[in-house]
Design brief:
There is one protein chain. With 74 residues, the protein is mostly beta strands. The strands form 2 sheets. It has a 3-stranded antiparallel beta sheet with strand order 1-2-3, with no helix packed on it. A hairpin with a 5-residue loop joins strand 5 and strand 6. It is 0% helix and 61% strand.
């Protein structure tokens, strides 16, 4: 959730790869979607100021490596 409580972020597997989504906490409306075709995402975190959303998970062919991506919000 964003520091202000206005936005909810989720991340996880989708077909293909993974996706991160932002929703309005007040209305449930989808605000944005980011796809990651080369990652299997497992965690999401929001910066203290709410300006960035970080996602992390597995990437690459086996054996897997870990990767983290940042999305600018707003």
């Amino acid at each position: 959730m964003s520091p202000s409580g206005s936005t909810v972020y989720i991340t996880g597997g989708s077909n293909p790869g993974s996706a991160t989504l932002a929703y309005s906490a007040a209305t449930g409306a989808q605000l944005w979607l980011a796809r990651h075709s080369d990652m299997l995402l497992a965690a999401v975190a929001v910066s203290a100021g709410g300006s960035r959303v970080y996602v992390t998970g597995l990437t690459g062919p086996f054996p897997n490596d870990y990767a983290t991506a940042a999305h600018r919000v707003g």
